[in-house]
Specification:
This protein is an alpha/beta fold. The protein has 2 domains: 4-124 and 285-309, Nucleotidyltransferase, domain 5; 136-279, ATPase, nucleotide binding domain (Nucleotidyltransferase, domain 5). The strands form 4 sheets. Strands 1, 2, 3, 4, 5 and 8 form a 6-stranded mixed beta sheet that branches. A 5-stranded mixed beta sheet has the order 11-10-9-14-15. It has helices at residues 43-58, 100-108, 121-131, 183-186, 189-200, 207-213, 218-242, 257-270, 285-292, 297-303, and strands at residues 4-10, 14-21, 26-27, 33-36, 66-73, 77-78, 83-84, 115-120, 140-146, 150-156, 159-160, 177-178, 181-182, 246-250, 276-279. The protein is 36% helix and 22% strand. The chain is globular and about 55 Å long.
Protein backbone atom coordinates (compact mmCIF):
# COMPACT_ATOMS: atom_id res chain seq x y z
CA UNK A 1 0.00 0.00 0.00
CA UNK A 2 1.36 3.40 -1.02
CA UNK A 3 0.82 5.25 2.23
CA UNK A 4 3.86 7.55 2.18
CA UNK A 5 4.01 10.97 0.55
CA UNK A 6 6.94 13.33 0.34
CA UNK A 7 6.18 16.97 0.92
CA UNK A 8 8.55 19.60 -0.47
CA UNK A 9 8.51 23.25 0.52
CA UNK A 10 10.19 25.37 -2.15
CA UNK A 11 11.43 28.49 -0.40
CA UNK A 12 13.13 31.50 -1.90
CA UNK A 13 16.59 30.21 -1.04
CA UNK A 14 16.13 26.58 0.00
CA UNK A 15 14.09 23.42 -0.31
CA UNK A 16 12.88 21.48 2.72
CA UNK A 17 11.56 17.97 2.10
CA UNK A 18 10.21 15.31 4.43
CA UNK A 19 8.18 12.11 4.20
CA UNK A 20 4.67 11.99 5.65
CA UNK A 21 2.79 8.88 6.72
CA UNK A 22 -0.68 9.48 5.28
CA UNK A 23 -2.25 6.99 7.68
CA UNK A 24 -1.01 8.77 10.82
CA UNK A 25 -0.81 12.31 9.40
CA UNK A 26 2.70 12.69 10.79
CA UNK A 27 6.16 13.39 9.41
CA UNK A 28 8.32 10.28 9.54
CA UNK A 29 11.22 10.85 11.89
CA UNK A 30 14.61 11.24 10.25
CA UNK A 31 13.29 12.07 6.76
CA UNK A 32 13.56 15.86 6.86
CA UNK A 33 16.30 17.45 4.75
CA UNK A 34 17.10 21.04 3.78
CA UNK A 35 19.21 22.10 0.83
CA UNK A 36 20.27 25.70 0.22
CA UNK A 37 19.52 26.93 -3.30
CA UNK A 38 20.86 29.87 -5.30
CA UNK A 39 17.59 31.12 -6.77
CA UNK A 40 19.44 33.07 -9.46
CA UNK A 41 21.41 30.05 -10.67
CA UNK A 42 20.82 28.24 -13.93
CA UNK A 43 18.01 25.71 -14.22
CA UNK A 44 20.30 22.67 -13.99
CA UNK A 45 21.85 23.82 -10.72
CA UNK A 46 18.45 24.60 -9.18
CA UNK A 47 16.89 21.29 -10.23
CA UNK A 48 19.96 19.37 -9.07
CA UNK A 49 19.65 21.08 -5.67
CA UNK A 50 15.98 20.23 -5.37
CA UNK A 51 16.60 16.61 -6.36
CA UNK A 52 19.43 16.34 -3.81
CA UNK A 53 17.06 17.06 -0.91
CA UNK A 54 14.32 14.84 -2.32
CA UNK A 55 16.77 12.00 -2.87
CA UNK A 56 18.00 12.28 0.71
CA UNK A 57 14.42 11.93 1.96
CA UNK A 58 13.74 9.01 -0.37
CA UNK A 59 16.76 7.15 1.00
CA UNK A 60 15.09 7.03 4.43
CA UNK A 61 11.85 5.35 3.28
CA UNK A 62 10.60 2.27 1.45
CA UNK A 63 10.17 3.79 -2.03
CA UNK A 64 7.76 0.97 -2.94
CA UNK A 65 5.31 2.67 -0.54
CA UNK A 66 5.79 6.14 -2.05
CA UNK A 67 2.57 7.53 -3.53
CA UNK A 68 4.23 10.67 -4.80
CA UNK A 69 5.69 14.07 -4.07
CA UNK A 70 3.59 17.14 -3.27
CA UNK A 71 5.22 20.52 -3.75
CA UNK A 72 4.36 23.71 -1.91
CA UNK A 73 5.45 25.99 -4.71
CA UNK A 74 5.51 29.79 -4.98
CA UNK A 75 4.02 31.36 -8.05
CA UNK A 76 3.75 32.12 -10.80
CA UNK A 77 3.51 28.42 -11.63
CA UNK A 78 1.32 26.15 -13.76
CA UNK A 79 0.14 24.01 -10.84
CA UNK A 80 -1.95 21.45 -12.78
CA UNK A 81 0.86 20.69 -15.23
CA UNK A 82 3.99 21.22 -13.16
CA UNK A 83 5.52 23.90 -15.38
CA UNK A 84 7.48 26.82 -13.95
CA UNK A 85 6.34 30.29 -14.99
CA UNK A 86 8.66 32.37 -12.82
CA UNK A 87 9.26 35.81 -14.30
CA UNK A 88 9.62 39.30 -12.85
CA UNK A 89 9.88 37.78 -9.35
CA UNK A 90 13.69 37.81 -9.04
CA UNK A 91 13.93 34.13 -8.21
CA UNK A 92 14.06 30.88 -10.18
CA UNK A 93 13.60 32.78 -13.43
CA UNK A 94 15.94 30.38 -15.25
CA UNK A 95 13.25 27.72 -14.83
CA UNK A 96 10.68 29.58 -16.94
CA UNK A 97 8.87 27.09 -19.18
CA UNK A 98 10.59 24.06 -17.61
CA UNK A 99 8.52 20.94 -16.93
CA UNK A 100 9.62 20.42 -13.34
CA UNK A 101 7.95 17.03 -13.07
CA UNK A 102 9.77 15.62 -16.08
CA UNK A 103 13.14 16.97 -14.97
CA UNK A 104 12.88 15.74 -11.37
CA UNK A 105 11.35 12.40 -12.33
CA UNK A 106 14.38 11.72 -14.51
CA UNK A 107 16.86 12.80 -11.83
CA UNK A 108 15.14 10.75 -9.12
CA UNK A 109 14.51 7.77 -11.42
CA UNK A 110 10.84 7.54 -10.53
CA UNK A 111 8.27 6.01 -12.85
CA UNK A 112 4.89 7.46 -13.82
CA UNK A 113 3.11 5.63 -11.00
CA UNK A 114 4.71 8.04 -8.53
CA UNK A 115 2.69 11.25 -8.81
CA UNK A 116 4.09 14.77 -8.80
CA UNK A 117 1.59 17.36 -7.59
CA UNK A 118 1.84 21.08 -6.92
CA UNK A 119 -0.01 23.75 -4.98
CA UNK A 120 0.64 27.34 -3.96
CA UNK A 121 2.90 27.47 -0.92
CA UNK A 122 0.63 29.71 1.18
CA UNK A 123 -2.31 27.45 0.35
CA UNK A 124 -0.28 24.40 1.40
CA UNK A 125 0.37 26.07 4.75
CA UNK A 126 -3.38 26.71 5.16
CA UNK A 127 -4.33 23.14 4.21
CA UNK A 128 -1.97 21.75 6.84
CA UNK A 129 -3.25 24.08 9.55
CA UNK A 130 -6.82 22.97 8.84
CA UNK A 131 -5.78 19.31 8.64
CA UNK A 132 -3.38 18.79 11.56
CA UNK A 133 -2.83 22.27 12.97
CA UNK A 134 -4.53 24.82 15.16
CA UNK A 135 -7.50 25.39 12.86
CA UNK A 136 -8.66 21.79 13.03
CA UNK A 137 -11.75 22.64 15.09
CA UNK A 138 -12.85 25.56 12.90
CA UNK A 139 -14.83 25.35 9.68
CA UNK A 140 -13.90 28.70 8.09
CA UNK A 141 -10.38 30.03 8.45
CA UNK A 142 -7.96 32.50 6.93
CA UNK A 143 -4.28 31.63 6.91
CA UNK A 144 -1.51 34.22 6.63
CA UNK A 145 2.18 33.67 5.99
CA UNK A 146 4.21 36.75 6.84
CA UNK A 147 7.70 36.89 5.42
CA UNK A 148 9.38 37.71 2.13
CA UNK A 149 5.87 37.91 0.69
CA UNK A 150 2.37 38.35 2.10
CA UNK A 151 0.83 34.90 1.68
CA UNK A 152 -2.80 34.11 2.38
CA UNK A 153 -5.54 31.55 1.80
CA UNK A 154 -9.22 31.13 2.64
CA UNK A 155 -10.29 27.65 3.80
CA UNK A 156 -13.79 26.21 4.24
CA UNK A 157 -13.96 22.76 5.88
CA UNK A 158 -10.39 22.06 4.79
CA UNK A 159 -10.86 23.10 1.15
CA UNK A 160 -9.34 26.27 -0.34
CA UNK A 161 -11.88 28.83 -1.58
CA UNK A 162 -10.69 30.67 -4.68
CA UNK A 163 -13.92 31.90 -6.25
CA UNK A 164 -17.09 33.66 -5.17
CA UNK A 165 -18.17 36.91 -3.58
CA UNK A 166 -16.76 36.04 -0.15
CA UNK A 167 -13.11 35.94 -1.24
CA UNK A 168 -10.82 38.11 -3.37
CA UNK A 169 -9.78 37.11 -6.87
CA UNK A 170 -7.53 34.02 -6.75
CA UNK A 171 -8.51 33.46 -3.11
CA UNK A 172 -5.64 35.54 -1.74
CA UNK A 173 -4.99 39.15 -0.79
CA UNK A 174 -1.38 40.03 -1.67
CA UNK A 175 -2.36 41.73 -4.95
CA UNK A 176 -5.22 43.86 -3.61
CA UNK A 177 -4.86 47.66 -3.57
CA UNK A 178 -3.82 49.18 -0.27
CA UNK A 179 -3.07 52.87 0.17
CA UNK A 180 -0.96 53.90 -2.84
CA UNK A 181 0.34 50.41 -3.71
CA UNK A 182 -0.74 46.80 -3.11
CA UNK A 183 -0.95 44.79 0.08
CA UNK A 184 2.28 42.90 -0.54
CA UNK A 185 4.17 46.19 -0.54
CA UNK A 186 3.02 46.94 3.03
CA UNK A 187 2.97 43.53 4.71
CA UNK A 188 6.23 41.89 3.64
CA UNK A 189 9.83 41.98 4.87
CA UNK A 190 10.70 44.53 2.19
CA UNK A 191 8.33 47.09 3.73
CA UNK A 192 10.02 46.74 7.10
CA UNK A 193 13.59 46.98 5.85
CA UNK A 194 12.89 49.72 3.30
CA UNK A 195 10.82 51.91 5.60
CA UNK A 196 13.24 51.48 8.49
CA UNK A 197 16.11 52.54 6.26
CA UNK A 198 14.18 55.57 4.97
CA UNK A 199 13.34 56.74 8.50
CA UNK A 200 16.57 56.01 10.33
CA UNK A 201 19.24 55.80 7.64
CA UNK A 202 20.18 52.36 8.94
CA UNK A 203 20.45 49.35 6.64
CA UNK A 204 19.21 46.01 7.96
CA UNK A 205 18.84 42.61 6.36
CA UNK A 206 15.62 41.48 8.04
CA UNK A 207 12.84 42.07 10.52
CA UNK A 208 14.65 40.47 13.46
CA UNK A 209 17.19 43.29 13.54
CA UNK A 210 14.38 45.83 13.70
CA UNK A 211 12.64 43.82 16.43
CA UNK A 212 15.87 43.80 18.44
CA UNK A 213 16.16 47.56 17.99
CA UNK A 214 12.58 48.06 19.19
CA UNK A 215 13.74 47.38 22.77
CA UNK A 216 15.15 50.92 22.91
CA UNK A 217 14.23 52.63 19.64
CA UNK A 218 10.96 54.50 19.12
CA UNK A 219 11.24 54.42 15.32
CA UNK A 220 11.39 50.63 15.32
CA UNK A 221 8.43 50.37 17.69
CA UNK A 222 6.41 52.69 15.47
CA UNK A 223 7.03 50.43 12.48
CA UNK A 224 5.46 47.47 14.25
CA UNK A 225 2.51 49.61 15.36
CA UNK A 226 1.87 50.66 11.77
CA UNK A 227 2.31 47.13 10.46
CA UNK A 228 -0.22 45.58 12.83
CA UNK A 229 -2.75 48.42 12.62
CA UNK A 230 -2.62 48.60 8.83
CA UNK A 231 -3.04 44.84 8.53
CA UNK A 232 -6.09 44.79 10.79
CA UNK A 233 -7.86 47.55 8.88
CA UNK A 234 -6.93 45.96 5.54
CA UNK A 235 -8.14 42.47 6.47
CA UNK A 236 -11.34 43.49 8.28
CA UNK A 237 -13.69 43.63 5.23
CA UNK A 238 -12.55 40.21 4.02
CA UNK A 239 -12.87 38.62 7.44
CA UNK A 240 -16.47 39.86 7.52
CA UNK A 241 -17.24 38.72 3.97
CA UNK A 242 -15.80 35.26 4.52
CA UNK A 243 -17.19 34.99 8.05
CA UNK A 244 -13.85 33.56 9.20
CA UNK A 245 -13.79 32.06 12.69
CA UNK A 246 -10.02 31.96 13.06
CA UNK A 247 -6.88 33.40 11.53
CA UNK A 248 -3.75 31.24 11.72
CA UNK A 249 -0.51 33.11 11.19
CA UNK A 250 2.88 31.73 10.22
CA UNK A 251 6.09 32.93 8.61
CA UNK A 252 9.27 34.52 9.89
CA UNK A 253 7.69 37.81 10.89
CA UNK A 254 5.58 36.04 13.52
CA UNK A 255 8.75 36.02 15.62
CA UNK A 256 7.90 39.67 16.31
CA UNK A 257 4.20 39.07 17.02
CA UNK A 258 4.55 40.47 20.52
CA UNK A 259 5.46 43.80 18.90
CA UNK A 260 2.69 44.04 16.28
CA UNK A 261 0.01 41.61 17.47
CA UNK A 262 -1.72 43.93 19.92
CA UNK A 263 -2.02 46.59 17.20
CA UNK A 264 -3.50 44.04 14.79
CA UNK A 265 -6.01 42.97 17.46
CA UNK A 266 -6.92 46.60 18.26
CA UNK A 267 -7.56 47.40 14.61
CA UNK A 268 -9.83 44.37 14.25
CA UNK A 269 -11.68 45.40 17.40
CA UNK A 270 -12.18 48.89 15.97
CA UNK A 271 -13.84 47.25 12.94
CA UNK A 272 -16.09 45.14 15.19
CA UNK A 273 -14.32 41.92 14.18
CA UNK A 274 -14.42 38.98 16.55
CA UNK A 275 -12.03 36.29 15.38
CA UNK A 276 -9.43 34.11 17.06
CA UNK A 277 -5.82 34.88 16.16
CA UNK A 278 -3.50 31.89 16.50
CA UNK A 279 0.19 31.44 15.73
CA UNK A 280 1.19 28.28 13.90
CA UNK A 281 2.93 25.54 15.85
CA UNK A 282 3.74 23.60 12.68
CA UNK A 283 6.14 26.28 11.43
CA UNK A 284 8.25 24.97 8.52
CA UNK A 285 6.50 21.59 8.63
CA UNK A 286 3.18 23.16 7.61
CA UNK A 287 3.93 23.61 3.90
CA UNK A 288 5.45 20.12 3.75
CA UNK A 289 2.33 18.61 5.33
CA UNK A 290 0.03 20.57 3.01
CA UNK A 291 1.96 19.48 -0.05
CA UNK A 292 1.99 15.85 1.06
CA UNK A 293 -1.77 15.86 1.54
CA UNK A 294 -2.17 16.20 -2.23
CA UNK A 295 -1.23 12.51 -2.40
CA UNK A 296 -4.32 11.56 -0.39
CA UNK A 297 -6.55 10.66 -3.34
CA UNK A 298 -9.84 11.38 -1.57
CA UNK A 299 -8.61 14.86 -0.71
CA UNK A 300 -6.97 15.51 -4.08
CA UNK A 301 -10.23 14.91 -5.95
CA UNK A 302 -11.72 17.83 -4.00
CA UNK A 303 -8.94 20.31 -4.80
CA UNK A 304 -7.71 19.18 -8.23
CA UNK A 305 -9.97 21.51 -10.21
CA UNK A 306 -8.97 24.47 -8.05
CA UNK A 307 -5.30 24.30 -9.07
CA UNK A 308 -5.96 26.05 -12.36
CA UNK A 309 -7.21 29.09 -10.46
CA UNK A 310 -4.00 29.61 -8.50
Amino acid sequence: MKSIAIGADIGGSHIYSAAVDLSTHKIIEGTGFTQQINNKAGSIEILDGWSKALSATMQQIDVARLAGIGFAMPGPFDYPNGIALFERVEKYESLYGVNVSAELRQRLQLDENVHFRYINDATAFAIAEAWVGKAGNFDRMIALTLGTGFGSAFIDHGIPVLEGDSVPEMGCVWHLPFKDKIANDYFSTHWFTGTYSDRTGKKVSGVKEIADAAVTEAAANELFREYGSNMGHFLAPWIKKFDARVIVIGGNITGAYDLFGKHLENALHQNDIKVELLLSDLKEDAAVMGGARLLDESYYTKVRDLLRLM
